[in-house]
Design a protein that fits this description.
Elements: E1 2-13, E2 16-27, E3 31-36, H1 42-49, E4 57-61, E5 68-71, H2 83-88, H3 92-109, H4 115-133, H5 139-149, H6 166-180, E6 184-188, H7 196-208, E7 212-216, H8 220-226, E8 229-234, E9 237-242, H9 245-283, H10 286-301, E10 328-339, E11 342-353, E12 357-361, H11 368-375, E13 383-388, E14 394-397, H12 410-417, H13 423-432, H14 449-462, E15 467-471, H15 479-490, E16 495-499, H16 503-509, E17 512-517, E18 520-525, H17 528-543, H18 550-595, H19 598-601, H20 604-637
Length: 638
């Protein structure tokens, strides 16, 4: 059953096209990710779907029985209620039903056999049936589970909503939305303001969600964990790709390469035909001129393949240390920081070595940013020692971008700190970070979060430091910019110490993970997935600490290996099906192109052959799609 159908949707603002002729649908219980560069129109599309904006043309079809829930990226709530009371309001009809049932129980207990008693019993039976149908007995548990899952401690349940931070208010709104259990959830950057534990809880919640979900997110790890399909908005259009984000990246690259190949082949053929036309015209005979005109007409009728377009552009980013540091970059021992009676962290000890890329993770409020400020000398430690190695030159990326002067223009911000650069070098550098033309003279205070992040990264690059401390560097960056940053850091010859909630980033970049908790720092060699694997091993050991005999242990290992083998086979089959789907879709497009060529449609035999091949390929595509959907459902149910 389709819960959403978009057909030929177009929107423009003051003559600037946002998107045109978008068409797609979403089925019940389907989980879909919506991605694209900043400004591609993702949020605009959500606003049209929810009736907050009107489209210029096209239609949005949502069945009347379908309830839609919408989480905006920037939300605001004012309420005198406590956190618990505000979220509990979602279940008010159910709690009212429960209260009436309690009243009826009291009345029934005081009645003897009578018509009034029968009426009360009938009413009670209907209420009880309705109460069970909406799973009323689990409401309290679901409410508390959602609040805890989204990062609220029990002690915060009774805090007034008006006293919460902006991020906490956003989590209250998200909790209410999830508990309302709409048939179609539209989520715009739902992982904003969530720490890793809350994001992991949300991932499981969405995977198990009984309705359909369409989610805009720059969190690629989150998309990998939750969605079955990616919708990609680019250059005013929308393409659909089966699978999660990582699968989409592979498919998109293959499609780009295929389009580029077809474009280059056609351009070569056009040049060949043009050369032949010129040659025929140069002969000046009546016959050669006729041949030239005939080929010219054929060339004009040719369906041109457009040059493939990438996204808005990638940052050209490269970090190159001016000098090489010693092997020992930093040694920390007994490091502690307190503000009065409030202890931030205590007795930290760790070492960093040249060319390591360390990811620092931990819950919000545990002191990650404070640790960076202590290492940079902005804040004095309460106790402990810090020893930097030989020739260590540190530079800092601050997630609040406090090193940018809001009163300056973009060009002055870079030129004032690099006065020896000439006009052309400044413009060239800014162009590499996607600042062009009049953009250079914008005041920094007027820039978006993404623009400020790109400018701060340019300043970091120009520092030529050999030790980078970066606090949430992927915040506000679009997907293309994140990939450019990751590629630059993976080729960085210095040392990296980075705070990040971006697990996809940590998986690609980090060579070691530091987990900061109230008990100190724990080090894990490897990336984020390796850290998770080791954490889960510890949890499994705590859950089942009892010794197992050798036979049972052997059987358990054999069973686990068989399950892992079956999962690998399923993943392999899924990848093969996705490759088949891509091949069939490409073949179908090529058949359609052939059928538009005069030498084909004017030849009945050739035309019938291609029609037959087209029908056979379309049937094969449908079979592959059905197999892919079935296998996806099986893998999700496991």
């Amino acid at each position: 059953m389709k819960v959403l159908n978009i057909s030929q949707l177009s929107k423009a603002f003051v003559g600037e096209t946002i998107f045109e002729n978008l068409s797609f649908s979403i089925n019940n219980r389907e989980k879909v990710g919506l991605v694209g560069a900043n400004g591609a129109g993702k949020t605009t599309l959500f606003r049209i779907m929810t009736g907050q904006l009107s489209a210029d043309s096209g239609s949005v079809m949502i069945p009347k029985t379908i309830r839609v829930g919408y989480l905006k990226q920037n939300t605001h709530i004012t309420s005198e209620k406590t956190v618990y009371e505000e979220v509990r309001a979602v279940f008010e009809p159910i709690f009212a039903m429960e209260a009436e049932m309690r009243e009826l129980e009291l009345k029934i207990s005081n009645k003897t056999e009578s018509p009034e008693l029968n009426r009360l019993m009938e009413r009670y039976a209907k209420l009880q049936e309705a109460y069970e149908e909406v799973n009323g007995y689990a409401c309290e548990s679901e409410l508390r589970g959602a609040l805890r899952g989204l990062g609220f401690d029990e002690s915060e349940f009774h805090r007034p909503v008006n006293q919460l931070s902006g991020g906490q208010k956003s989590r209250v709104i998200l909790a209410k939305l999830l508990l309302e259990k709409a048939d179609l959830l539209l989520l715009d950057e739902p992982t904003n303001h969530l720490d890793l534990a809350a994001i992991e809880w949300l991932e499981k919640y969405i995977r198990d969600y009984k309705g359909a979900v369409l989610v805009i997110s720059h969190d690629r790890y989150f998309l990998d964990a939750t969605v079955q399909r990616i919708l990609h908005m680019h250059h005013h259009q929308l393409d659909s790709y089966p699978g999660n984000y990582s699968s989409f990246v592979v498919h998109k690259q293959k499609m780009y390469e295929e389009l580029e190949k077809r474009f280059l082949i056609q351009q070569k053929e056009i040049k060949r035909q043009e050369a032949m036309i010129r040659d025929f015209m140069d002969r000046r005979s009546a016959r050669s001129i006729r041949q030239a005109k005939s080929r010219q007409k054929m060339l004009e009728r040719m369906k041109r393949v457009d040059a493939p377009q990438s996204e808005q552009g990638n940052m050209k980013l490269r970090f190159s240390p001016r000098v090489k540091s010693g092997n020992d970059v930093l040694r920390v021992s007994g490091l502690s920081k307190s503000y009065g009676d409030q202890e931030i962290f205590k007795d930290l000890a760790f070492s960093l070595y040249r060319q390591e890329r360390i990811g620092l993770i931990g819950p919000n409020g545990v002191g990650k940013t404070t640790l960076f400020r202590v290492l940079l000398g902005d804040v004095m430690p309460t106790d402990g020692d810090m020893d930097f190695g030989h020739h260590v030159h540190a530079a800092h990326f601050d997630q609040e971008h406090t090193n940018l002067n809001g009163n300056k223009t973009i060009v002055d911000e870079i030129w004032d700190e690099n006065p020896t650069f000439d006009h052309y070098r400044i413009r060239s550098l800014l162009a590499r970070f996607l600042f062009f033309g009049d953009d250079l003279f914008k005041e920094i205070s007027s820039l978006s979060g993404g623009e400020k992040a790109r400018l701060a990264l340019l300043k970091l690059m120009l520092s030529e430091a050999n030790f980078l401390l970066m606090d949430e560097p992927t915040n506000h960056l679009d997907l293309e910019s994140k990939e450019a940053l990751e590629n630059a850091l993976m080729h960085y010859d210095g040392t990296l110490f980075v705070i990040s909630h971006d697990r996809y980033f940590l998986n690609r970049v980090a060579t070691r993970i530091f987990e900061l908790t109230e008990d100190g720092i724990q080090s894990y060699m490897g990336n984020y997935d390796y850290y998770l694997e080791k954490k889960n091993e510890v949890i499994d050991a705590l859950v089942d600490p009892t010794p197992t005999n050798k036979t049972a242990l052997k059987a358990e290992r054999k069973k686990r290996k068989e399950e892992e083998k079956a999962k690998r086979q399923q993943k392999k089959l899924l990848q093969e099906l996705e490759n088949t789907i891509e091949e069939k879709e490409t073949a179908i497009e090529e058949f359609h192109d052939l059928l538009c060529q005069e030498e084909v449609y004017s030849d009945p035999v050739r035309s019938r052959e291609i029609h037959a091949a087209l029908e056979e390929t379309e049937a094969a595509l449908n079979r592959a799609m059905e197999e892919w959907e079935t296998l996806t459902e099986i893998m999700e149910s496991e």
